[in-house]
Amino acid sequence: MRCGAPGPRRIIASFPSADPCAGPGTVRDRALTPWRCKTFPLYARLVRYGFRKHATYVRGALAGAFTNSVFGILRAYTLIAVWQARPGLAGYDITDAITFCFVTQAFIGPMQLFGGGLTIPERIRSGDIALDLVRPASLQLWTLAEDVGRAAYLFLVRGIPPMLLGALLFGISVPTRPGQWAAFLTGFALAVIVSFGWRYLVALSVCWLLDDRGVTVLSMVLSTFFSGMMVPLHLFPGWFGDLVMVLPWAAMVQLPTDLYLGTAAVADTLAVQALWAAVLLGLGALGTRAIRHKVVIQGG
Amino acid sequence: MARTYFLLLWTWTRAAAAYPVSFAMMTVLGFAIAAIDVAVILIIFANTTTLAGFSREEVLFLYGAANLAFTICDTFVSNLDRVSTHIKAGTLDTFLIRPVGAWIQLAADRFMATRIGRILQAGLVLGYAVSALGIGWERAWMIPVMVLTGIVIFASLWTIAGALQFLLTDAPEVVNTLTYGGSQLTQYPFSVYTRDLVKGVTYVLPLAFVNWQPGLYVLDRADPFGTPGFMRFLGPAAALVLALSAALVWRQGLRHYRSTGS
């Protein structure tokens, strides 16, 4: 579209190009993209831009880390009291319970457990979504790439401080075997995708509801309570406890935390997470197709 | 002043009702959010009979009393913590040139009538706990006093949180540790915390007077940390001191605000 004119091309060259095949054969393009097909580098660049976009707000992220740490300390005392009353509950000892508390606090940022993180609701309201939908790249993958960058940044800045503080104040356990680390990091990556898949569906629903506040709160209730953010899901009684363990929200927090603690069967856990990632991404793809037919643009 | 405040509340309520599906969902979900905390307490007590020496009904009583005060403030003044949003958007200036106090306008800003479900929920939990514990009037007279004290304390904390945002424009989330952190802290008996933390939230930030100290009197319990009996009645005085400091901090914050000029 705009590739022909040299002027605008120079300006948009510093942003992720809207067209994966924009400006073929240019020097800059050859330098950045080793392959003929430029779709992969587009998404790789979007990951980097997502990371950098959030890196701009470093003070905001550090404030989040501080807040998550303080709440982590308060939660830790409650969990300590519970495990003092019932040592060995749910197969955790007190150190496991404290570790659980701080690992889950560290997840708040990357998994965006209180909701949000995607700009789609605002873009639907402002009408900008129409622009996103005519781009020759998938809206879903585009958003996922940016969200992965966001999660990576927030993992570093909002995830690590609460764990360091927890280690300093209470002492937390750290996986010792490389296999456990590999399982945890895989589980963590899958959890980020599950979290994205869920938030993407929530964001798309704005197309039908026009106001995102109701679904945002619903999503927050589900993804804080049923994820294990409040108390470990193992404490939920009876059949209810079994049910919540196989819901998608468990795949965001409880399952990767169990992989960190090494208390879960690795293959089964990763399978449940992968299944939910696939289901949610599939539903998201269907939703993306649906909004192409039903975009309601308010304002203009 | 009060008339303007309620007029603003009504305006925001009508604005929110323009999206009926969201409005209905928010009212129901307001109840659900509040229910999460109760569910967590119930889940904990499904696994144990006492938590740091307190029974389920006693914890529900402490939770209900603190949460009643907290949700009332959350509904009516919590939007004070959007100061930094207004500073960044440049909309704070419009609040300052209107002939009504900025505190009143900011407290009413984006008022959500749908949060009233949460107040109701806290009241129900408190009512259940009081009747289950069979507390007689000779001690129950303290309950309205402690809820009022709690309202003053939480409203003061929100005012301080709003005022701090004049400094922390980039990082408004920090002040959540004061307000929502205070609520989280007062949900459980203070006996789960360490002595130093409890000293801090008794003598520095008087959160202990929201429900812990007066609650011990209502429950007729001795303080596990061994504070003298007269401390149970100091709540209103502590709340007053905090309210005065909050007013001072708010005035200082507003006085030092320099518009971006954009």
Automatic annotation (TrEMBL), chain B:
Keyword entries, A-Z: Membrane, Transmembrane, Transmembrane helix
Residues passing through the membrane, by range: 28-47, 59-77, 119-137, 144-168, 230-250
Matches recorded under InterPro entries: ABC-2_transporter-like
Pfam families reported for this sequence: ABC2_membrane_6
Name this protein carries in UniProt: Transporter
Taxon lineage: Bacteria, Bacillati, Actinomycetota, Actinomycetes, Streptosporangiales
